[in-house]
Write a structure and sequence with these properties.
globular; 230 residues; Cytochrome Bc1 Complex, Chain D, domain 2; mainly alpha; 48% helix
């Protein structure tokens, strides 16, 4: 009950804040303007590299916010910052509209890190036997599911569901990002950056306050679970 109240209180707090107003852009124009983004993020916003985020089906409000952050320097990235500097406000609106209109792709089940000496060989995967690696992934998914929905009230780790929704759909008016089907590797890096303070362009540094209380295992578990949401 306490866990549910924590998630509810956060939801009500954000519901009471003023909504962020964002413009709606031209999807066709955005497609043309996003051509240079395809090398990292894919032609339709579904990047093929796990460390580059998927942009497909992301809220236009969030995409606009992040592009402006790259442009004004409040969020630094050696690749994105110079690219955003060249964009006009209309460009940002159109590009955001294009990616928001695309459909995000599903991910394959995460694979446990290699290097565990006790881990059974991958050759058992087709024998009907469950390997230690598969068991590890399933445990992480279960742990991540609990953290996403309930948080950890004892350590003041807020439930992700409060801002990002039951299925990782996010909150467009508040510019809280959709997370579902995002690459696990990218999510792990993002949470680790929030934890270390390397990334801080969010309201009241909220994500840092949450992530700094999470262990590396919890970050991986939540990232794995979110990557499986559809």
């Amino acid at each position: 009950m306490k866990k549910k109240l924590l998630a509810l209180s956060l939801t009500l707090a954000f519901a009471g804040s003023s909504s962020i107003v964002h413009s709606e852009g031209n999807i066709n124009a955005g497609k043309e303007k996003a051509a240079s983004c395809a090398g990292c993020h894919g032609e339709n916003g579904n990047s093929m590299v796990g460390t580059f985020p998927k942009l497909a089906q992301q809220h236009s409000s969030y995409l606009q916010k992040q592009l402006h952050a790259f442009k004004d320097g409040s969020r630094n990235n050696p690749i994105m910052s110079p690219m955003a500097m060249a964009l006009t406000d209309d460009d940002i609106v159109d590009i955001a509209a294009y990616y928001a209109a695309q459909k995000i792709s599903a991910n394959a089940l995460p694979v446990a890190d290699a290097g565990n000496e006790d881990e059974k060989p991958a050759s058992e995967a087709g024998t009907g036997k469950t390997t230690d690696a598969e068991n590890t992934v399933q445990k992480l998914l279960a742990q991540g599911s609990d953290l996403y929905r309930n948080g950890d009230i004892g350590r003041e780790v807020s439930a992700c569901i409060a801002c990002h929704g039951p299925s990782g759909e996010g909150n467009k008016p508040a510019a809280f990002p959709a997370l579902k089907s995002q690459h696990a590797d990218y999510l792990i890096k993002a949470l680790s950056d929030f934890k270390s303070g390397a990334r801080s362009n969010n309201p009241d540094n909220m994500m840092h306050m949450i992530a700094k209380k999470m262990t590396d295992e919890e970050i991986k578990a939540v990232a794995y679970r979110i990557s499986m949401m559809k």
